[in-house]
Amino acid sequence: MNEVLEKQAVPDADLTNCDREPIHIPGGIQPFGVLVAMSSDWIVAAASRNVSDVLPVAHEDLIGSRLSDYLIGEAAEAIADRMRQLGFPDAVERVFQQRLIEGGRPYDMAIHVSGSRIVIEMEPSQGGRTGHDASRIRPLIDRLNRARTPVEMCDIGARQVQLLTGFSRVMIYKFAEDGAGEVVAEARADHLEPFLNLRYPATDIPKQARALYLRNLLRIMPDVSLTPVPVEPYLDPDGKPLDLSLSTLRAVSPVHIEYLRNMGVGASMSISIIQRGKLWGLIACHHDKARVLPYSTRTLCELFGQFFSYALEQKEADLERVLAERTRASHQALSMILAEGGDFSENFDQFAKHLGSVIPFDGLALSLDGEIQTSGSKPAEDDIRAIIRFLNRGSASEIFATDHLAGHLPEAERYADRAAGILALPISRTPRDHLILFRQEVARTVTWAGRPDKAVEEGPSGPRLSPRKSFAAWQEAVAGRSEPWSAAERAAAEDLRVTMLEVILRLSDEAARERKAAQERQELLIAELNHRVRNILNLIRGLVSQSRGNAETPEDFMDTVGHRIQALARAHDQVTEKQWQAGSLCDLIETEAKAYCDEKSDRVEVRGPDVLIEPLAFTTVSLVIHELLTNAMKYGSLSDSRGSVQIDLALNETGALVLEWQERNGPPVQAPKRRGFGSTIIERSIPFDLKGQAELTYELSGLRGRFVIPAGCVAGTRQDRAGPGDAAGPAAEAGLHGRVLIVEDNMIIGLDAEMMAQDLGGEEVVLTSSVGDALSAIETERPDFALLDVNLGSETSQPVAERLEQDGVPFVFATGYGEADSFTSEFDVPILRKPYVVDAVRKAFAEAQRA
């Protein structure tokens, strides 16, 4: 054990300066165990009621001695083994039922690092099974999995912890956004009064206590009547006290002890419920008399708490997904309303109905260009304008939600019966327009566990908050408030905001207002484009950085990075061509095979259904397929003249995609001696990015891989599969010829389109950037085909389209917006979506030529 201790990143203490005199301070540790703090193997601080009950040494001789001198070899090795596992912050290792001295009783121990010290806590083993026996926890988890709602899961969780621990009361305690808490589930003995649905103010559990609950997942006080034992010496040679944040034995503040005694609690335990790094709540356990739990049972409780946190988070996420589906359906319904055209006022009630199916409300107001349209319960128009002036003082790109409008706008109190709370979605920049949802006042009663205010009283150390003395239900009438807007509803509102923007920006039939709407929409698209470009640049930077270490020459490096970026581009083309819809996995595999394997692509066989992959997962899957094919070409079955690759696709019972990769008849395969970036992409991308599975087996007959892509990344299957770029009919085969006119005001995009037109057979390509230049080019020589960008800065390509139609020249429109301008509907021609994809350009020109 000495060697392990010496390897810890802990400096030795100056033992000659250790304070041997006990420093008695409030707090310390609970006296049912022994704590020692060490530097290397030297004991530099300790706390215990009677250390001689544990170790064969007097307390006054413990400081400055070696712990290993007192332990039997088996105990020293067990401690050393656990210390080797302390590899990350806040790690705690445990040893169960370990005898420390010859013939002594067994002890349970917890080991952790505290600053420059190693802390070992020892307490008498209470018997029972060890913490490694998962069979005790599995039935509890099975019952949790049967819950249909978060509320039902909390009820089951409280009952299961009570069965596991025997505490007389177990509560699920949830924190609100303001720090207050509420008992949302409870399991209790019959003789106890119920605490269910009681609320507690934020001051009952202060911020510093909640911060400790994030680090130390389980806290226990077996007997609140016990007097804490101080740590001696209290200060280290640097004048700092020992940090006991992770200590199991750490005593709690006298104020909290008094709080528990006022509740009639003799023992307590708490298990933290943590979601996404934040404290969601606690599993709070109370007993009316002292109760000691075996350390192994407490460890199982901690394990149950971690699984409960995860399961509860997943159950809440399921509800959010249901709301997201409703939001998506609302998006589609709103798009249908837009497609119908006509005056928006004629469809306003239908518009409001679809919004209400996503977010319940009592009234609705739409402010657009100074005009207000309303539906349902709402304030007077002058009051709505006052609300809009208040909203205009806030952010132009964030929703605003409150269940107490009068708290922000005092005059709103007089119409609280119609609009006590609002949810406002900003839908423009200048002038500021809003979509505002109203909720009426809902008078209700909040039941507190005693009065929510705490009195300040004089204590031994001056003024302090006194702990609660009464826990009788105290009711507070709440008026002037609406039903609160839930986090899920606010998230849905944020998702709907972009759709609302498109709805409002398409209201006007006048060309001038449409141009204005297009400019505002362009600002939003630029912001989104900026966000996506940053993500793409970060991804490419990562590819370049990670690929650098695997290349032997600059040429190899450029070739590797180029192929990976091209794979990303091909995947992006496939999803953007379908306007960010799910993409075909078979098309992806065939595209990669033809791009990289060329004449060997027919040796890649895909069997099973054509699975559609969601856009957010498509890039990850494409990189994995690219790296698998790259390895097959370089080292595997496609590196010779007779090998082949077989890819089997299947959906399992959960809807997840199982992809089996098998290489055959190639050269003998061995596992690589080192992992390059390509291997890392294959083995870790799907588990890390998609939360799926990846397994590789290096067999002499060929590489075998099994990949599981979760159901959330799968959008179903496609029945009518055709190879990418192999669309049926003459449209896919048609090309260009003769003189091609391209009108595009962005030079880079224009050069890209010019290159595509040349690749498709155009003998002469004329690139212009304005209406005047385009008309001059037509006057000079009539083109055979034309590609017209709809928006050319401050003008549109409408005059060019009219001239081409007059001359009988086939042409297509191109736009980067979700919809083209209204004038395009006057021409029966195809509309291309940017960015350009060569197959889409070919098909559009073929369709224009047929028309």
Explain this structure.
It is a single chain. With 851 residues, the chain is of the alpha+beta class. The protein has six domains: 2-124, 2-Layer Sandwich (Beta-Lactamase); 134-206 and 265-318, 2-Layer Sandwich (Beta-Lactamase), CATH 3.30.450; 341-443 and 480-507, PHY domain (Beta-Lactamase), CATH 3.30.450.270; 446-478, no CATH class; 549-718, Histidine kinase-like ATPase, C-terminal domain (Heat Shock Protein 90, 2-Layer Sandwich); 730-850, Response regulator (Rossmann fold, 3-Layer(aba) Sandwich). The protein is 37% helix and 23% strand. The chain contains 21 helices and 35 strands. It has a six-stranded antiparallel beta sheet with strand order 8-7-6-11-10-9. Strands 2-1-5-4-3 form a five-stranded antiparallel beta sheet, covered by helices on one side. A hairpin with a 5-residue loop joins strand 6 (169-175) and strand 7 (181-188). Helix 7 (295-340) packs parallel to helix 11 (487-505). The radius of gyration is 35 Å and the shape is globular. The termini are far apart. The model is unreliable at 2-26, 459-466, 508-512, 527-533 and 721-734 (pLDDT under 50).
